[in-house]
Specification:
- By secondary structure, the protein is an alpha/beta fold.
- The chain is about 30% helix and about 20% strand.
- The chain is globular.
- The C terminus is likely disordered.
Length: about 180
């Protein structure tokens, strides 16, 4: 008997050689240690952002996990929806607002007719240190359990919304949350 196709793909982005830029990968690894709903699949995309094209074609509901510069305190969480996409495509000179550290590819991928996911979100975390080196900054490393719990909650809420309305979930982008208490 075939298992039902997962309703949600969760993809961790980032570069493990640039400290906090790797937060998406670290959060996917933290999720793998947790009890999760069965109707999702986890991917460690890393810097292979064009692999997202294949993921988006197969799983039309996508939650991306990435480092995002939004101008908040390091560790702040940003929940971005499709209507927030214009914030992600600002030029280098206009970076006054939210900006995925992988901005040069994500908006293009997420806007392509026929290949864009039906429903997508970005769970972004404000980095403290994006510089050469491995491992997270001590701040984000200490916040990792709380960030993973928040991401798990986001997944559960997204799956619940998808089960009630399979159409795209527009109008649900939310600003940052501060995990520093």
């Amino acid at each position: 008997m075939m298992q039902p196709r997962p309703k949600l793909a969760v993809a961790g982005l980032g570069n493990l050689l640039l400290k906090d830029d790797g937060i998406g990968i670290y959060l996917i690894r933290a999720l793998r240690k947790m009890k999760l709903p069965e109707n999702l699949v986890l991917f460690e995309i890393g810097t292979a952002v064009f692999f997202l094209h294949s993921v988006a074609l197969e799983y039309k509901n996508l939650l991306l996990v990435d480092a995002v510069r939004g101008g908040g305190k390091p560790g702040s969480v940003y929940r971005l929806a499709p209507e927030d996409a214009p914030l992600l495509v600002q030029s280098q000179a206009e970076r006054a607002s939210f900006l995925s550290l992988h901005d040069f590819r994500l908006p293009y991928l997420l806007s392509q007719p026929g290949t864009a996911p039906l429903c997508w979100r970005i769970f972004g975390v404000e980095p403290q240190t994006v510089d050469y080196g491995t491992g997270l900054s001590s701040l984000l490393s200490g916040l990792l359990p709380a960030l993973a719990a928040a991401l798990k909650q986001e997944i559960e809420e997204m799956l619940l919304r998808l089960s009630k309305a399979p159409s795209p979930l527009a109008g649900e982008g939310r600003g940052g949350g501060d995990w520093q208490g």
